[in-house]
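Morning F.,

Quick status update on the modeling queue. The single chain you submitted on Monday has been processed. Sequence for confirmation:
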Amino acid sequence: MSKPKGSKEAFFLAFFFICLAVFGALSFFKPWLPKLASDRTGIDRLFHTTLIMTGVVFVSVQSIVGYFIWRFSKEKNEKALYHPHDTKLEITWTVVTAIFLFALGGWGFKEWRSTMLQPPPKNAIMVEAIGQQFAWSFRYPSATGMFAKVDPNLISYKNPLGLDPKDESSKDNLYTKELYLPVNQPVVVRIRAMDVLHSFFLPNFRVKQDAVPGMTISTSFTPTQIGDFEIGCAQLCGAGHYTMRGMLHVMSVEDYQKKLDELRKPTKG
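Structure tokens below.
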């Protein structure tokens, strides 16, 4: 049997595509995730580690396959030799792969538990986010930290949230169209929906939680950067879904308190 020969054409073609891929990655590389502005750093570490591990495996496997194609290419009239299987090798790579997958899965469960199942600090600021076609609105509790009861039958132009006037807290609940939060202070957001399924999405804070009609679901985080950030809806909620956006303003504690005091002042008309 003749000695396997390499294909220069295949080698140069593979080299060309590798150079093209490297050039594209270096020239057009952008951060995979938007700039982090909260305390959820573990989510970024998990995503980046997963990307690096799977990227190394992908490049390694494709490089080995390409090398074999180039190194052991034969003439058309030659018969290829092959081994049907290797039990030890197959068990080895299956076990190694399973170990890495279970490790990533365990890490992911740990991050999910720390962000979703841990009770918020007692000094956390409470705020409510309400989704409806096609806008977000927000409610702050009364001075005593209480949210007034709501009744869908009471919703009107003057009472957009359906607050129960018999509840004393309804007189002091603050209704806003934009969200204001202080920096470096833990926050608990109570999420509700008034019509269909929505999803409260803060890309810069690694927060995404469904808003389900008839349910109140809470999520907590701590803003760490002062600035203005976009609030999106991550669930298709109707024809105007693309317009459903809001704004989150993270400010100093002093500016935050001044803003709330300003919004609580009675207005004429």
